[in-house]
Write a structure and sequence with these properties.
Number of strands: 7
CATH architecture: 3-Layer(aba) Sandwich
Number of helices: 10
CATH superfamily: NAD(P)-binding Rossmann-like Domain
Strand content: 5-15%
Order of helices and strands: EHEHEHEHEHEHHHEHH
Largest sheet: 7 strands, parallel
Shape: globular
CATH class: Alpha Beta
Helix content: 40-55%
CATH topology: Rossmann fold
């Protein structure tokens, strides 16, 4: 797929991978429709795209709000008359917590954004993508959608669900709309705001800052690199796109040793992931 002239929709475009995708696609001549829950971050992304000569507009919205997402889809169609690429990228995380200690409100929040946001974006835009001769729906899962990680049960739940939703949707869309490619993206540790923006960190403010800093040491891939990998995978029609060198080994462990990899991941997590103190 060539991106010049295509209309691309990106959720969570205010920072991280979403911003990097917007800047890269804008530089390649795509017309952009962006959204984010943070108006200040969204405006900055749109301004950067505009400064490099790209065509762009943005709307502040929460992807867990189905009505808002469908309204945005209508607005994109009115403004551009077509949609060719949809990146369901918006995502949130929780700090290190035991599954039995996660509040009902936090469960609803993380599933609302990470899973229902993807479902809403897919449902709202698939009819528009289906009108094109060539189109792609790109749903961002995670490395934690390939392997289960202790003390990240809600996040893993949401990202495994995104993977399952996307793979099932792909097999279904092949029958009635084969020109729409469905991609599942699995980033590893990307240098974004996700740890700093996460809810539910425990301990004093100083402890929380130390824990965030330790998490961020696991982030090995720049957002620009991640965007380049994703766009290359979309252009080449790859169904599953792994992002970052840190995704390869865990993916193979889960494939080759599905019954035993969990114990290895648990030992790794005890060494690497901040402990509750």
């Amino acid at each position: 797929m060539v991106f010049s002239g295509k209309v691309a929709v990106i959720s969570g475009a205010g920072s991280g991978i979403g911003r990097a995708l917007a800047l890269s696609l804008g530089a390649q001549g795509a017309r952009l429709a962006l959204n984010d829950v943070r108006a200040d971050r969204l405006e900055e992304t749109a301004s950067q795209v505009a400064r490099q000569g790209g065509e762009v507009f943005g709307r502040m919205l929460d992807v867990s709000d189905r009505e808002a997402v469908f309204g945005f889809a209508d607005e994109v169609q009115r403004r551009y008359g077509a949609v060719h690429l949809v990146f369901n990228n918006a995502g949130v995380a929780l700090g290190r917590q035991r599954a039995d200690q996660v509040s009902t409100e936090d469960w609803a929040w993380i599933l609302g954004v990470n899973l229902h946001g993807v479902i809403h974006g897919s449902q709202a835009f698939l009819p528009l993508l289906a009108k094109q001769q060539e189109a792609a729906l790109i749903n961002v899962s995670s490395l934690f959608g390939l392997v289960g990680v202790p003390y990240q049960v809600p996040y893993c739940t949401s990202k495994f669900a995104v993977r399952g939703f996307t793979e099932a949707l792909r097999s279904e869309v092949m029958d009635w709309c084969p020109q729409v490619r469905i991609h599942s993206v699995h980033p590893g540790g990307i240098k974004t705001n996700i740890a700093r923006d996460a809810r539910g960190w425990v301990g004093s403010e100083a402890q929380q800052q130390r824990d965030v800093a330790r998490f961020e040491k696991l982030f090995v891939t720049d957002p620009d690199q991640a965007a380049a990998i994703i766009l290359r995978g979309v252009s080449r029609g790859k169904n599953r796109i792994l992002v970052g060198s840190d995704t390869r080994l865990p993916d193979w462990l889960a494939r080759l040793f599905p019954s035993t990899y969990a114990s290895w991941i648990a030992r790794w997590a005890r060494r690497k992931v901040p402990s509750k103190s």
